[in-house]
Amino acid sequence: xxxxxxxxxxxxxxxxxxxxxxxxxxxxxxxxxxxxxxxxxxxxxxxxxxxxxxxxxxxxxxxxxxxxxxxxxxxxxxxxxxxxxxxxxxxxxxxxxxxxxxxxxxxxxxxxxxxxxxxxxxxxxxxxxxxxxxxxxxxxxxxxxxxxxxxxxxxxxxxxxxxxxxxxxxxxxxxxxxxxxxxxxxxxxxxxxxxxxxxxxxxxxxxxxxxxxxxxxxxxxxxxxxxxxxxxxxxxxxxxxxxxxxxxxxxxxxxxxxxxxxxxxxxxxxxxxxxxxxxxxxxxxxxxxxxxxxxxxxxxxxxxxxxxxxxxxxxxxxxx
Length: 320
Known about the structure:
By secondary structure, the protein is of the alpha/beta class. The chain folds into 2 domains: 4-214, Rossmann fold (3-Layer(aba) Sandwich); 224-315, Orthogonal Bundle (Helicase, Ruva Protein, domain 3), CATH 1.10.8. It is 46% helix and 15% strand. The protein contains 15 helices and 11 strands. It has helices spanning 4-19, 26-37, 52-62, 78-82, 116-119, 123-128, 163-166, 180-190, 196-201, 211-220, 228-243, 253-269, 277-288, 296-300, 305-315; strands at residues 42-45, 67-71, 83-88, 93-98, 105-109, 130-133, 136-139, 145-150, 171-174, 247-249, 293-294. The strands form 4 sheets. It has a 5-stranded parallel β-sheet. It has a two-stranded antiparallel ribbon with strand order 3-4. Helix 12 crosses helix 13 and helix 13 runs antiparallel to helix 15. 37% of the residues are buried.
């Protein structure tokens, strides 16, 4: 049986192997692992060139999972994601040609470049891990995880994600450019065979798990203790987003589930078998940020969603 100690050791090994390829970005790596080990999805926001694609490729290799990538474009169709039935003249029957969604880790690159009808092709897959093609429903991998990326500064020719789709992402992960020292390290490594892509393809990175072991690790999160008063605390945090005068649309019940799971996984990453109030506070912003819509009058004044969440956290008594 997988124990919290085994989970902690596995997470530590995964971090070490990922660190051989990804320079810095420790917080980003941790939050991606939180999504994977809770069976949820991540929305990664960052400027081009910060290794978003490389990060997901590395995660899939280290965790022994199949990886596919979709480059979202304005002319991408739903069938390009899910697949379609093609008539086989030799067999005189239709044959299913599966799309890239039939994988374990799916990178939806620049997801906001495709129109709503194409984005919606992922909704059933993300929520139910099922895909319906020509009225026939197919089961996806139990560990199916979507990592969607978007550029935070480029809005020309993009389609904003609908609230229903954003709500299906457990965390919004901001991937910032590296520090000067990290970028200097990257430049030096690129002058040799130690470039991140070369390290990943050269066999220097070790696989830590396979897909079956990954499923067992997810079950181990159930052994992380969270007290009833902490559950009440995080429920109050989510509910407060719906009553704030600065918020037009607050977080729904799915946010409560996400905050609970994320806090447990964060505690496991910290090597503990119990959740603390600080775990809940740390995960509140990445869980709630993309689920909240600010009222226009406050948005004009420059009030950020992060500021609102921090005020909510300060207003709710912390359980002892």
